[in-house]
Fold each of these.
Amino acid sequence: MKSVKLLVAIVGVVGFAIAARLLAPASDTNLIDPLGNAFSPLPEGVVSTGAGLGVLLLGAWLLGKAAQAVGFSKITGYLVFGILASPKVGAAIFGEQIPWILSPAQRDNLTLVNELAIALIALTAGGEIQLDFVKRAFKSISLILLFEFTLVLVAITALMSVLLSQSPVFAEYGGLLTVILVSLVIAIVATANSPAVVIAIIGETRADGPMSRTALSVTVCKDLLLIIVFAVALAVATNAASSAKQAAMQEAAEAAAAGELSPEERRFLERADDAGEPMPDTAEQAVGEPSNIAADNPGENGGSGETTAPATADGGRTSDAGPPNAEQSSLPDANAPPSAPAESTESPSADSAPAERGSVLVKLTKQLGGSMLAGLIIGAGLAWYIRNINAALPIVVVLGSFGVALLSKELGLKTLIVGLAAGLTMANLYRQQSHALFERVEELSVPVYAIFFAVAGSKVDPGLLADVWVYVVLYVVLRAAAVWGGTGLGCKLAGTEKPASTWLWTAFVPQAGISLALAVVVSEQFAEFAFASQVFGILLSSIAINELLGPILFKFALGRAGETDAGTSAAEGHGH
Amino acid sequence: MQIFLAVLILVALALLATDRRFYRLRRSKMASALLTGGWIAVAAGFLLGEFGLGVISPDLLRETTPLLIVGLGWIGMMVGLQLKREVITAIPAAVRKLTLVDAALSLVVVGPAAALGVTMWTTAVRSGAEHGAELAKANAWPALFPAAVLLSAGAIGWSMETRSQRVTGKTELGDKLALVVRYGGALSAVVAIAAYGIADKFVVRVEQEARFDVGFALAAAGLTVLLAVIAAIIGRFALSLAGSDRGQQLAVFLALVTFVAGIAAQTDLSPLFAAMLTGVVLTNLPSEHLDRFQRFILRAEHAVAVFFALLAGLLINPLLHPYAVLLAVAIAVFRWLGKPAAAKLGLRRERLGEPPELPPKSTLYVAAARQSPIAMAMAVALVADEWSEFHRQMLAVVLLIGLLSEIFPLIGSVGRRQAVSSGAVESPAGTVAADAARGRPEPQPRAGGAS
């Protein structure tokens, strides 16, 4: 009966969302008010963003409950609702003319919530790291962490290298080194797993024993490590990819000046020109001249379905205008990558000239060091507030998260590291004060996670998924195998006893908040490249599958390892 | 990023206002009136806004419209959640009657006056303006109707704050009269929101032209009721799933408020009215965890109120035409004279329990002159509906009425205190001194009491 009611409630929410879009009045333009002042009404997307937020939050929360009722994680429900609400899904099922749950404008405006969510996720993750325990179990934690991390990294880097090397984008200006560097960044996302899920399952089953304790420690320590590694790798890979692209542009311009432009180089310049990218004068002149290249090679353009998307004001980082160099690769034509305004990594390649390695590292050190320092200050500030004022903590948490996002953007820091450092500082240096704050964080995380995962799910393009499912399956299977292998090896060397050593690997399969946050950052950082949306689709789908299967697997493993209470009911627990 | 800065500043200020040190300021009656009315927050918002230091511009605030809509929904739902059937039936019939009398009087007197005032104001501006035919359309009566509705609905009811009206100490009679002010104020807020939410939809705008459309108004009212009922049923079910977990309850509340207010705004209904109706239906559906849910939500009441007052200060355009100022003064005078008279008329010879008679003189009657804070919320809703300079100036008119309506009761309260202290006049009824004069024993001090 409860399931029927849940279904009816969800249908009600969806029905209202669609009805609202049908009944929404058209927005007028250029009106005059009774005092003679001209004014323009709010764009439809802004007015309806509130409705989109409400629909996603309510629908995702209800479907999360439904997912939990059948043994899955709530986050799976949030993601699935987001996928269902996606404008692309609606277009795929009913066509472009029929309004669906969310419009593209609503979805894009909702990405603002990512900033708050990423800060909150990082704060929570940092709060889970207890340095005392880490010191005591350092050897076993570090061995398991090292081998599991390395094996997953190698396996997924290999897989993504194969995928990316098939893209003509890299054939034009990539090179093997760039492919590997970019694949490495993507593989780091694969190494992330979810402390929140681990905590939730342990709490739900009341598990206690060496496996659960080790699982928790390794998971939270990995968060700290991988964010730092990710930041370094992302900066280097972005620099390499952008530099390679700039070098190819320069070569093409020189060839144009010498009158020796090849067909491939001409197409490369034309795509760049359509995307509005700056280029040397000789290159601009070259693309201005009519060409017979298309006539010479009709099959290549027609067969590949090459498209050139219009340039956009911010360099292609909008949702439905295609990416600047949208072109056909061996994968089907990609839609624009999601323009999630997640943590923006200030790329060292912002300058057109290739950055020297030394200056990149200096910049990175400043960024990481500055982020940790900022996090320390924010954490200390929050602790001071709780000790001396201690009022309206939920608002303080929201304020703190906004503050982390704002500070990071304004100072060019890493939101994830600032949040992590703030949480770490509070949990380890101000334990008394942190308890009250993290209780409020846990309360707030319920709606924030629901909307965050729902928004992430709404960016999924089913058309894209249908074409990359092979890679998704390969990714999931390879990752799981690498996790199993690496964890087993680490346990053996650390001397971990059975049954913990047999089943510990299942704790590292679930992926959630941090993984998704990193995936969003990857898609944001590589938004100008054609592979971005496919890669984001693969990452998102894999995270969803791991989020779906991971908790079930881990719960089963805890039981087999004998660490759960017999007869404990799967009651509603905390966490995600 | 400027949006983040704007929201950060607003939330930080709202947070500061919840500090205990601000609550201590309320011991002073004048400070109590200023704080509870939100005037300090309005002033702070004005200082930060376009006509002050220029830290936050109206254009920036336009982009936070979804947040504003959610805030309206929050206020509406908080008002609605307090309207339990048992509470309404427990309120004395006299107070309910007083509320209706006051609403009718406000609409009948202020409505036409507002219509006349707004027409004179806009006509005076039009005579010296460009745009010709377009401006004529913009000034046509249907286009001015929402503004007149706002002023009329804003005139309904009064502020529930009573602390600043106590002359000396607390008495049983004074407490009873304070309850009348508070219950009456609360009921009036509901009536005002409903009146505004329904009446505002009688006008439909198609491009520059506005026209009356009764059919649309009825359809809008029906749709609002449908939305509220279905949302409340879903909300009740969601609450049963959330149980007593605070995080889950918070998620349900935020989801419900955002859903109702957002859908209402998207379909050109009133978010405030829709959310209030949802709260009314929800609170009257049997639910195990609703009390805890309500307590949990009402804890944020003060912060939300301060946040809205800040927003109002940010949004206003104070460059008012003299006719606009005159209109505000006229409505304020109506409040000074008409509201206390209506309160006395409505409660005369009514039995409100023991003692049976109400005192003929009490500063608490004067409390009815003060504008309800809901008027500010409705004015902000008008701006959120259409971001024009006219609506921003209408907000300024509403705030001006509110400010002027505070002066009379404050002066009255301070004047009476001084007169009583000097012995020039007898103690106003509802005070310790008056009760002592009548031979009634002094009441025992109470831990709580009227705010």
Amino acid sequence: MELSLNHRTEGEYTVLDVGGEVDVYTAPKLREKLVELVGNGHHRLIVDMTKVEFLDSTGLGVLVGGLKRVRSHEGTLALVCDQERILKIFRITGLTKVFPIYDSLDEALQSEA
Amino acid sequence: MSDVELHLPPDVVYVGLARLVVTAAARQSGMDSARVEDLKIAVSEATTNAILAHQRVEVAMPVVLAFGPREGQFQVTIQDTGPGFDPPVDDVDGRDWTKEGGLGVTVIRGLADDVSFVREKGTQVNMTFAVGFEDNGNGRG
């Protein structure tokens, strides 16, 4: 089970590409990455989950933690996700009302700007 | 048919193995792929809770998963011997989203066709999933 995390800058946004499986075993790496990015001044984040193969509530919790962190710096955290199996757990938990979620990175970059 | 049992050491590294084995058995029982995805997440949630329950009180005993097909359904039981917890009442709209934990039970309830929590010498989570023929209407199950 692997988790891949790569970030890059797109204009004023930092895009974090997440790939692989996010569960209780791998989520600490995602949490560390978000803490590191926010700590380094990246307060406008887009987490691209297009390549995520699995995500459960531990991963949701880490994303909520990331949102809290950026908001404490008046920042934003948007998600890119086009996979129904993942969107489903955002709906079940009510988190679709908490995160802006976009179908594609282009849409996220345009809408968040 | 008897259930298959999986005894997992209380280490989070094994949650992925639990997902892999239970979903393989569900596919073998004829569950459709969309439903297998739901099952996979629910198993991950319940196994995570069970393993963390053992870790919190430093119980080294294994977490036990028992699973198998039953009359057109697929049943999974996950038993821990931790101190237990009261499953939270679902209140998605009124939920304090700033809390990072506690979403697992909400997810399980949202995905399983039926779920019960039994507290006796730990917590037993019983989840039932229709094998999923209702979507294609071929009358099985």
Amino acid sequence: MTAFRLSGVSFSYGKGPVLKNVSLEAAAGEMVALLGPNGAGKTTLTRLLVALLHPDAGTVSIGSETTDGKSPEDLADRVGYVFQHPDQQLFARTVLEEVAFGPRQRGVGATEAHDLAMDALVHLGMHTARESHPYDIPLAQRKLVTIAAAVAQRPRVLVLDEPAQGLDRETTDRVSALIREMAGEGVAVLAVSHDLAFVAETFDRVLVLTNGEVVADDCARNLIMNPVRATDLGLRQPDAARISSALDLPGAPFRMHDVSQALAGRLHPGGLQ
Amino acid sequence: MIIGYQPGTGPLHRAHPLTTLTIAGTVAALAFVLPGPVGPAVLVLAVVLTAVFEKVPRILRVALIIAAPFWVFAALLHGVIAQDPTRAVTLSARITAMIVVFLVVLASVHPARLVDALVARRIPFELAYLLSATLQAVPRLRARAREIIAAQRCRGLRVRGPFARRIGVVIPLALPLILGALAEVDERAIALEARGAASPSRRTPLNPPVDSTVDRLTRWSLGVALVVALAIRVLA
Amino acid sequence: MSVEFTAVTFRYPGSADPALSNVSIALGERGSITVLTGALGAGCSTLLLVAAGLAPHVTGGDLQGAVRTLGENGTTKDGRASLAGRVGTLLATPWTQLSGMSFTVWEEIAFGPANLGWTRDRIDGAVDRALATFDIARLAERDPQTLSGGELQLVMFAAVAAMEPVLLLLDEPVQELDPRRSDQVYAEVLPTLAEQAGIVIATTNVDRAVDVADRVLVLDNGRILADGDPAPILGGSTMVAGGRSTTAARIARDAGFSEPYPLTVDALIQRVVS
């Protein structure tokens, strides 16, 4: 069951093509990461998915319906979108109000909206800040609030633009865990990121967008553990993968935890004390 | 919809910023001084032609959108209720002339050139920057409003439909918009400091506005025209 | 030293808890690259703002103790006038630093030098050098409003560097950049800039910073936790366990290496093969 699909999508802002004949499809519960250098068209692609933009050619579909003639508000019950910079969307007086906004727009009652919002905030460890003014909390926490706001909409497709940016390791891990949890519940997740290390830790399927074209759509391992291919695609192997490749660790692990384990196994064959 | 500076090479673009501002001020004043409906109507024609010659015709579409509600209002108030269609046309023309000239000025005055023009007149840099930034406030607020509305649409905010609902949508955003704009002023202050604004040296103009004879003559003539128009209005 | 803090305690307006507590430090000498790190909210950004004279002047708040930047007192008007252009500050939110007065990247980079009253020739030279150093010549005619996040960050960094300051205070300067670009900044741009300036970088991601930093300063809840050579400090168990160190160090620790943990991939590999 296709959760979202782009078919032969092309788009231009008027000064040259930004996306050229892009095709991408994901099923319910699938986690997809979209990588690419700055200016490759990643954010544009996410905006097409939520009908903030419409393709010049090709179709964009959420579920079985295309975004043709639709507006973002028509899709809000199915798609949650997290903007790259939280300050682009924060506007309520309290964190709780902000997160409850989405459900309220759908016509959900105040109590139920409150519950949905609290649930989302708890998931992101932000419930203690629920009465704070969004601009009184640090930037990284504002980011988590915007993610909670999208989660509270109970979407079937979750689109995140640079979710790990500006976050420290601990907070990034929290976001990774949430993404995996959402996928486990059947939500299709698309994350746009230029941070290959974050992508490597969380995602199995990775697409690479360069100059508006999809140049790779493969499992993370094939892209990350193949240094030649990674370089060709303009990707820099994350440090964990570099260690694994250089030391030729058994099983070719590329996630930090797996690399540590394999390395420990190599150095202390009898096991650690 | 484009509001704000658009690079160009027309006469208003090349004119000294103070000249362009004087033109705008004079037109705005004349819009209310000239007896209607002929006076304001001619003025509207004049500013529309200016927009065309300045090669910023796109602002006319924006002007239309902004002016339309005023036309409706004037038509209702004076045309239908007071049964005075002439007055309706006059009022609409006055407002339209002001809207168009304001947009033309926004489109043709490069904010940095305005700052340089003011600094050359011995106005302190920070004040000049503030004045120029105020002109940019409208496009910036619009850009910010657009972003916030786009984000809220992704969360289900309904923006199409009856006018009343659209107003209902904008009102709760008004306060955060204004607060956000004020916070932005704060941030700009940091940005300015970090870019050498506190320097005691006089800023070097990158595209120095030249106050030519034509500029000075134009401003004088406009001043005279305004006084004459006022005199005629008072004496007639 | 370019920046000297003596018993500095700083509170933001309306905040009971101090963002910086009794901080005494000297840093930023020309040619040095110092990394300032800590948990989010530890005070790294605040320290930079105070050093730049932007806090409390623009942010408001209450400052106790003494701050001297390049020998000046940044809290006075004369001090700030003297510091203009000599201290380059790059905030973590590059879009807030746009002048609003420029419609091309070239104009935006020239904004700072123009404000400093340089001659047209000197401005042209500085902008050209900045475009070259940051490898953004292809963006010169673009409208800054149309740039992507990463492009804008590079442009704002270039705009600050174009003033040829002797002290650069950078808050997460590569946050929006893709890995190739951020590597380029650490490997090429920063060493070039360090030839003329003292550099202080606040960042929570020290993976690449350790390649160029000669000093690390770790903050925790507004206080200095550690200060000195990166290898022993970031290679220590507490730092690594707390997520304050590099990926390589973390992997080394989890794999059972002994302290001090290697900070870079190369160092880790060296340890293994030997």
Amino acid sequence: MSSLTVKTVTIPGSGFITAEIDLGLPGLRKLAMVGNWAAAPLTFLVPAPTGTGWNFTYDMGNLIVMPVVPGAYIELDRWLWRGVDKLKIMSGLPGAPIVQPIDASIALIGSFLSGGPVLPNPRRRIGATCVGWNGAFPTFSLDDDDVVTFDLKKLLVAGETIASVDRFDLTVSDVAGNGHDATPASRTLGVAAVSGTMVSQRFGDWPETDWIEYTAELGVTTSMSNSFVVSADVNVRASLE
Amino acid sequence: MSLATVTAHIPAGQSASAPVTFSGKVVKIAVPANWTDAPMAFKTSEDGGATYRPMYRSDGNLIQMPVQLPVVDAVTQAATTLLRPEFLGELDNLVVLSGPPDDLVPQTYAVDIVLTIEP
């Protein structure tokens, strides 16, 4: 069920920084130095919160600097890039960029689980219970940094609007807010519960899950109950728009 | 959740296993009793196996695991299993190296390293 997604970016020759990278990955977890690399550490920039310009990234007050061995496959800190969806990668340090003489490519690798099952009888138009997987969903064992991704867009397929769409922000708000419950109307019955209405019935508490994003491609007859994708080892920004 | 195992085989006299493919995280590594003294290092591929690259931590250090010898305890006969190498994240494939890439250590005997995979 797991899979890896790869996106390759390039620092152009005579340059020292990538263009804006829309990660588009479930979670940046690894880098691979797939091309030429003139000796230089990597630094990383993210959009400034003001919406203008870019900021270098720090971890607990320390600039994030990554030494690079050409040709290396680099496992990243699983927490570090949580919440980062746009990125620039720079060769060198702030104030001291190092020009790459020729194009230097870097593969960005994300990892995730995918492939939630499609229920034979989607349970649509039943409000929050659309989230109820009712035993049809296999019980995944997830780590504390795992994330479940829903597909809200697909709730609008074929001109239909699932009744719960306008409540979905409420449905997931507690999860998105780092709460332990997923749905306002849910019952906390524990992981063994059948016919549950809340994600935490399947996955237990979600203290580390602080975002929900709607992505994924699903069929026409989707509903909330069959349109989710479970993602693991994924750290992407909170996204409820 | 069910765990799976894959076996990485290093032939006698060689220092790298044939690539093993799987999908998930390595959660246990069982070291064979006839392991020649060497740390374990790893390679993986982001391009479906065309190129295998040595694996590093983000601090620039090679990912390698020391292996305590003897691998099998003389008294209890307990073998050695390396648990939860957390620095190995989700992977599609892996090559197990005997020794770091720049200082490989040929294995005296053919060895099978059993990797337990959590999907």
